[in-house]
Input
Amino acid sequence: MARRSLAGRRDDTASIEIEIVRLRDLDIRALRLRWQGITGRAAPPHVPKHLLFAMLAYRLQADALGDLDAASVQLLTRAALATSTSEVMPLTARLDQRNQELLQGAVLTREWNGHVHRVTVVEDGFAWEGRTYDSLSRVASPLPGPNGTAPGSSGSGRP
Output
């Protein structure tokens, strides 16, 4: 049976939040009825309330805002079929590599001691405080670290 939209394809995030709040207030019986209405089949009897709530909330958001892309679904499927962590590691390593590709215009933000530092990804590297750096590591060296100083910093907790 075709899956029906939980939110009627509303993309208003405020209404999504309201609907999730309503789901949170339902008992397990009402959540199971809601599941039945959305999927056309009975909820798995072994699924506890908190997990059923999470599954319904996910479906609400996915229906309204879009579901996982095909590559993410494929990665999760392959990871679920793996018999050991050594089989999963190469999958996640490729994912990590893809996620490290920063698009030009992206802004990386770090807050330290009440001061916000913003680094922008530019064509030639990374721009910070009027200078362009060829690597993010070179930008990070003058930024203050958790210990208050970092190589190249003044020691005052500020670059």
About this structure: The chain has six helices and four strands. Strands lie at 107-112, 115-122, 125-128, 131-133. Confidence is low (pLDDT under 50) at residues 1-11, 147-159.
